[in-house]
Amino acid sequence: MIRLALWILGALLLAGIVHLSTVLAMPQAATQDAYSRLVPLTPVNAVVPLARPTAQSAIMPFMDPAFAVAACRYDLSDGTLKLNAPLSVAYTSITFYTRNSVAYYAINDRAAGRRVIELDLMTAEQHAEMPEEEDVTAADRLIIESPTITGLILLRALAPEPGLMPMARRALAGAQCRLEEARR
Q: Please, what sign has the CA dihedral across residues 85, 168, 36, 64?
C-alpha cells in the first residue's frame, strides 16, 4: 500500500513539474503574440490607431470595444524614443510591453497630472550615457527604462458611451512616438 502511495505521489509531482514548465515556456513558444500580430499593421516608431474590435474579429484577444486603441512598435537601437500623448476627457492609459509581451510600465491620466503625457523611453545603457546635466528630476522629465531594445506601447482612451468614440479616437490621433537620434 505504501509503495502504491509513493508511486502516485511521484506521478503527481512529475505531472506538476511538467505542467509548470509548460506554462512558463508558453510565452517564448507562442508565434502569434501581440507584437507579431501588429508587425504587418504598424511601422516602427510611429503611433497607429487600431481597428475597433468586433465579436468576429479582433487584432488581439480580450480587446474592450469601449476603448479606442493605438499602438507604437518601438526599436531603440538607433536612439531614444519621445512619446507625447494628449489625454482624452474620460480616461487614458499607456502600457509598455517587451517584445515577449511582458508589461513593464504603465501610466494613466490620473498619474500624469497634466493634459499631455510626455516621456522619454530608453534602455538602461542609453540612460547611463546621458550627460548629468540632462538627467533632470522626474517632475521635469519622465524617463522610462526599457528592459529590451524592441517592444510595444499600447495607448488606450475610454469612450464611456458609443457616441463618444470619435472623441476618444481624436485624442489618440494626436499621439506621437518619434525616435530621437543617439547623442555622440
A: positive
State whether 147 and 166 are in the same domain. yes
Predicted confidence (pLDDT) per residue in 93-128, tens digit: 999 999 888 899 999 988 877 788 899 999 999 888
In 3D space, the residue among 183, 9, 8, 157 whose CA is nearest the CA of residue 88 turns out to be 157
Helix H or strand E encompassing 181: strand 176-181
pLDDT one-digit tens code per residue, 35-83? 888 888 889 999 999 988 887 887 887 888 999 999 999 999 999 999 9
Q: Is residue 134 within 8 Å of 42, Cβ to Cβ?
A: no
Number of domains in the chain: 2
* 182: phi then psi, degrees, rounded to nearest 5: -65, 140
pTM: 0.79
Domain range for 61 is 34-181
